[in-house]
Design goal:
The complex is a heterodimer of chains A (106) and B (257). Chain A is α+β, with helices and mostly antiparallel strands and 106 residues long. In chain A, 17% of the residues lie in helices and 22% in strands. The longest helix of chain B has 24 residues. Chain B folds into two domains: 98 residues, Cytochrome P450 (Cytochrome p450), CATH 1.10.630.10; 140 residues, Cytochrome P450 (Cytochrome p450, Orthogonal Bundle). Chains A and B meet through loops of A and loops of B.
């Protein structure tokens, strides 16, 4: 199990044990974390599972592909450190990962 | 409708495809033939014309690549291979069919709402930043597009068994007015910020959603900035096409010059 902490825009933090093989989005979705909408169910098509990932953690996570990059370019929020959480597979290297949820997903 | 709502998405489509705007009339006629002709022969003719045109353009881009959607489609690789010709035609055709009537209809329903609610026009004119949320709220209240699926595996939902090959037509416009999901569902609350299923849900969520949202936003921004307070022409009764898409036949607006 991999520990992931999801921080709401108001600072409230929730930590969950997420099985490797899930995406960071699924970890949030299955634990009813607010603010992760994931309308398209993880197809990198809707852009509603955005999270901020600190650079130190981002280095250990899978790099964004071209599709995710173009989705991020379209995002309507601050784009620095922004990722789509459905495109980050949970691996043991991410144990302790902290992601911050933006104030809005669209 | 013919002055704006039909033309606008077709113009965007032409530009995306790298086609000259001079072909607008032709494409509008094909769109009409595809979607609003009761005669199956006319529907077939329009379909063949669009497919023939797309094939011709694809051949052209193969030799003369440009910065457009067709060229992108020719060069793109999915799971390690390129699209074959039929897939590419299908992709372009889907964008043509999926992105025209649907956008026109949703825009029309939104403009209709605003024509009947000068107070909402005033709010959005004063705060254009609210337009994106307002569009989603109006998409909830006036979902224009229903979506169909074919069952592949026997499934039981709410006590009803759906069998393989059954066609299921999902009425997004009813879901958007579900009182269990939305308090006061009949009321349009511009900043309600509720989720809706008018673009569908899950892996087959409308793939044109981002383009559609952008088109609708730009349309409303420009209409509200460019027109004084508008309303429906008095005495005109609304009528609608009703099929997979709910679409006003005409939307006659008046405003003081």
């Amino acid at each position: 199990m991999v520990k992931i902490t999801y921080i709401q825009p108001d600072g409230r933090a929730q930590t969950f044990e997420v099985p490797p093989g899930y995406s960071v989005m699924e970890g949030a979705f299955r634990n009813d974390v607010a603010g992760i909408i994931a309308e398209c169910g993880g197809s990198c098509a809707c852009g509603t599972c955005q999270v901020f990932v600190d650079p130190a953690w981002a280095e250990r996570a899978a790099k964004p592909g071209p599709l995710e990059q173009s989705m991020i370019e379209e995002a309507d929020v601050e784009k620095e450190h922004l990722r789509l959480s459905c495109q980050i597979p949970v691996t043991d290297a991410l144990d302790g990962l902290v992601v911050r949820i933006p104030t809005k997903q669209r | 409708m013919s002055d704006f709502a039909f033309e606008f998405p077709v113009k965007v489509f032409l530009q995306l495809m790298g086609l000259p705007q001079s072909r607008l009339k032709q494409f509008l006629a094909w769109e009409h033939g595809l979607l609003h002709e009761p005669d199956i022969e006319k529907i077939k003719d329009a379909t063949r014309s669009v497919v023939a045109c797309l094939r011709e353009e694809i051949e052209d881009r193969r030799v003369n690549p440009r910065d457009d959607f067709i060229t992108f489609g020719l060069q793109a690789e999915v799971e390690g291979r390129k699209f074959d010709d039929n897939e590419l035609v299908g992709f372009c055709f889907n964008l043509f069919l999926g992105g025209l009537d649907t956008v026109s209809s949703n825009m029309a329903m939104q403009i209709l709402h605003l024509a009947e609610r000068p107070d909402h026009q005033a709010i959005l004119r004063a705060k254009p930043a609210m337009i994106p949320d307002a569009i989603d709220e109006m998409m909830r209240a006036y979902a224009a597009v229903a979506t169909s699926r074919e069952c592949i595996k026997e499934t039981k939902i709410g006590g009803v068994t759906v069998k393989p090959d059954d066609k299921v037509h999902m009425a997004t416009f009813l879901a958007g007015r579900d009182p269990a999901a939305y308090p006061n569902p009949e009321e349009v609350i511009l900043d309600r910020k509720a989720r809706h299923v008018s673009f569908g849900y899950g892996p087959h969520l409308c793939i044109g959603m981002h383009l559609a949202r952008r088109e609708m936003r730009i349309a409303l921004e420009e209409i509200l900035a460019g027109l004084p307070e508008f309303s429906l022409e008095p005495g005109v009764e609304m009528s609608y096409y009703l099929a997979a898409v709910i679409q006003p036949v005409e939307l006659r607006l008046v405003w003081k010059v």
